[in-house]
């Protein structure tokens, strides 16, 4: 009787701990998700820096795999982005071509002094 009761109490405690851990995990996961991937700033000497904002792009219903890993590596500075390549329709230029998004002729929309 005593042993059975003690076992049940311990089982309940363990179950409670597991549920607590699961909830904490979910909470932290949501917190990280809400923060979203970070902005990435490209330093550009003559034209002014370019800040790529994930938030703006995700609001336009784009999803990770629209850009990763086909167009961009998931690492700041990892993809070797250059203005020449963008003008040739690579990297940002895959969308910023005046059709899917504003064209590369609109310098000041990307380059901020
Ligand atoms: C419109 C294109 C686009 C979309 C969509 C996109 N990313 Fe990115 N992501 C980029 C670019 C550009 C970089 C910078 C790459 C570079 O510097 O070479 C980047 C970099 C990253 C980095 C590295 C940041 C750092 O500081 O090193 C992470 C992590 C990342 N993205 C996660 C995500 C996740 C997760 C999603 C989906 C929720 C996502 N990205 C959607 C374009 C995109
Ligand atoms: C997969 C398509 C895609 C790629 C790749 C992409 N963009 Fe965009 N971007 C969009 C769309 C769509 C919009 C919103 C429509 C518009 O503003 O023309 C946008 C909007 C923007 C804006 C306007 C933000 C604002 O202030 O409203 C900037 C700046 C920008 N992108 C920079 C970049 C840079 C820099 C890169 C490359 C590192 C890049 N984008 C790559 C699709 C893309
Ligand atoms: C869609 C966003 C976007 C637009 C629009 C854009 N650029 Fe860029 N540009 C970039 C990014 C991102 C880089 C950073 C690549 C690197 O690290 O060199 C860059 C780099 C450069 C560089 C090399 C760095 C420097 O400043 O010396 C020059 C020059 C340049 N851009 C000129 C222009 C001019 C001129 C225009 C307009 C005709 C323009 N860009 C429009 C995204 C853009």
Fold blueprint:
Blueprint lengths: L1 H34 L4 E3 L6 E4 L1 H6 L4 H4 L15 H5 L19 H4 E2 L1
Antiparallel strand pairs: 1-2, 2-3
One heme C binds next to helix 4 and helix 5.
Number of distinct helices: 5
Q: What is the number of E strands? A: 3
Mean of pLDDT:
91
Assess the beta-strand content as a share of residues: 5-15%
> Which word captures the global form?
elongated
Placed side by side, the strands forming the largest sheet appear as 1-2-3
Which structural class best describes the helix and strand composition?
Answer: mainly alpha
Give the termini distance in whole angstroms: 78 Å
Based on the structure given, which CATH architecture of the largest domain is correct?
Alpha-Beta Complex
CATH fold assignment of the largest domain: Cytochrome C3
Task: Describe the model.
47% of the residues lie in helices and 8% in strands. It has 113 residues and is mainly alpha-helical. The protein has two domains: 1-35; 40-112, Cytochrome C3. The chain has a three-stranded antiparallel β-sheet. The longest helix is centred in the first third of the chain and has 34 residues, at 2-35. The mean pLDDT is 91. The site of one heme C has 19 residues, from helix 4 and helix 5. Residues 37-38, 40, 52, 54, 57-58, 62, 64, 66-68, 72-79, 81 line the site of one heme C.
């Amino acid at each position: 009787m005593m042993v059975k009761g003690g076992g049940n109490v311990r089982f309940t405690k363990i179950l409670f701990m597991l549920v607590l851990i699961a909830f904490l995990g979910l909470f932290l996961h949501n917190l990280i998700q809400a923060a979203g991937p970070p902005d990435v700033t490209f330093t550009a000497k003559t034209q002014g820096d370019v800040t790529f904002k994930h938030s703006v792009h995700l609001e336009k219903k784009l999803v990770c795999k629209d850009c990763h890993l086909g167009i961009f590596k998931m690492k700041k500075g990892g993809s070797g982005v250059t203005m020449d390549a963008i003008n040739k329709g690579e990297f940002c230029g895959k969308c910023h071509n005046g059709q899917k998004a504003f064209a590369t002729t609109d310098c000041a929309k990307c380059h901020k002094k």
